[in-house]
Design a protein that fits this description.
Neuraminidase, five-stranded mixed sheet, four-stranded antiparallel sheet, 2 helices, 29 strands, 5% helix
Length: 458
């Protein structure tokens, strides 16, 4: 695939180039010791954000979701912002009620669960199909559910469920109902491409909003229905495209697993434990970060981040196949390095956001082959510093560029049927040059990235 050339952004670009958010060894486009097969720099259609605490800027952004019209981004200040994807303007923002122990790492927009009465707790009923925001409140061991805020938009679900499909990808002290406590360490409670977005560093923007918490579920622990550090929520809808049939969650922290709940938050099953086994008989994970629903295959896709692989599972939790391996990391080996998020293209391929390789890889979901890559390490537009996750609106993709405190938009690649046969023949573009390293071996670069991952993971 061909990529467009870099476009200078004047003052805004120089501000980003001068930023040194995490001290990554990528400033000015310098590459790591596996730099030989990074993808090309791409041309950003728009750049949203920049380092800061004012509306429209970010303090380490970590999750993104869309309702098909607006973007919702949460950063490490526990601040959720609603953004216009065309202008980059912040339309609303709020914070989760408590964040001293850590901040959310996952957002999903999908229809609300049905009204539930359990004991003295009630989940308020919303019109069937009404989209809400599910927040994986990682360090408070729970899922928070908010209305789309605060103007109440009716955009189609983005990182969300649709007819028979699934998703994945805070309030004030406003009250909401819970069907379980949150005890333990956490305590209680479409348009076309835009021009490059400009930033307003004057501190303007909307005042903090205070949307109510509609519901929450979870709580600290290792029993079914509880979490250590929850990272993501995926929502499976019934055939009517409105009723929540199941919810899938991922978590880490020594209890690394995937759980399944029914539409009333009752745990159904769980799979996984911490480790690196590659067999279907002993399913192990090490920081599963994102779970997505592939309705074409009626399967689940899971990023097993620290094991550097993607898992395919049945909707009932049986392992189909792993793509990647803990023993093979880095572009020179043809493997993933910290695959953090996955975005389905709808043509049998998916885009994998690689935190450690500072790139996006396009993967064949049948055989796991890496078909193409885009992105390279750096601070300039079209480069990444620890990209985290991704969502899409129409023909635009929005990538959370964590280390650069921004969201970069790029043109969605063409569907596989439109790609030249030489670019989709199943070869692994990175599988050359070096053989796999032994499991457990780490380069100095990997050790540095592990430290960075731990520092932004909380």
């Amino acid at each position: 695939m061909r990529y467009c050339h870099f476009r200078q952004l004047g003052t805004f670009s120089r501000l980003l180039v001068g930023a040194s958010v995490l001290g990554l060894g990528v400033a000015g486009g310098c590459k790591d010791d596996h730099a030989g097969t990074h993808g090309s720099r791409f041309e950003a259609l728009s750049v949203i954000g920049g380092p800061g605490s004012t509306p429209g800027t970010f303090t380490i952004p970590r999750a993104i979701a869309t309702d098909g019209r607006f973007l919702y981004v949460v950063d490490k200040s526990a601040r959720i912002q609603k953004l216009d994807p065309d202008s980059g303007k912040c339309l609303a923002w709020w914070r989760t009620p408590i964040s001293e122990l850590g901040k959310p790492t996952g957002l999903t927009i999908a229809p609300a669960p049905p009204p539930v009465v359990r004991g003295n707790a009630r989940v308020p009923g919303l019109a069937a199909g009404t989209n809400v925001l599910y927040v994986a409140d990682t360090h408070y061991n729970r899922v928070l559910i908010y209305p789309l805020a605060p103007e109440g938009d009716d955009g189609a679900a983005g990182k969300s469920g649709s007819s028979g499909s699934g998703s994945s990808g805070s309030g004030s002290s406003g009250s909401g109902s819970s069907n379980s406590d949150s005890g333990g360490p956490g305590g209680g409670q479409g348009g076309g491409p835009a021009a490059i977005a400009s930033l307003d560093f004057t501190g303007g923007g909307p005042a903090e909003s205070h949307p109510p918490i509609l519901a929450q579920f979870g709580g600290y622990g290792t029993d079914p229905g509880r979490f250590i550090y929850i990272t993501d929520v995926a929502v499976l809808l019934a055939a009517d495209g409105k009723t929540v049939e199941r919810l899938y969650t991922t978590e880490y922290g020594g209890n690394d697993r995937m759980q399944c709940f029914d539409g009333e938050f009752t745990p159904m099953w769980q799979v996984g434990s911490m480790g690196a086994s590659e067999t279907a008989e002993k399913i192990e994970m090490d920081r599963p970060q994102v779970v997505e629903i592939d309705m074409a295959k009626r399967e689940l896709l899971l990023t097993d981040t620290r094991n550097h692989r993607i898992g395919r599972f049945t909707l009932d939790g049986a392992l189909v196949k792993w793509f990647g391996s803990p023993a093979i990391t880095g572009p020179a080996d043809g493997g993933f390095r910290y695959p953090w998020s996955i975005y389905q293209m709808g043509d049998g391929t998916a885009l994998v956001v690689e935190f450690g390789n500072n790139r996006i890889s396009r993967v064949d979901l049948e055989n796991g082959a890496i078909l193409e890559t885009m992105g390279e390490p750096g601070r300039l537009t079209g480069q990444f510093a620890s990209p985290w996750t991704i969502c899409g609106i129409g023909d635009r993709l929005f990538v959370v560029d964590l280390g650069n405190n921004r969201v970069q938009s790029l043109k969605r690649p063409p569907n596989r049927a439109m790609v030249d046969a030489s670019e989709k023949d199943g070869r692994n573009l990175g599988a050359k040059g070096r053989g796999p390293r032994a499991a457990g071996a780490q380069s100095a670069t990997e050790e540095s990235q592990e430290r960075i991952m731990q520092s932004v993971g909380g």
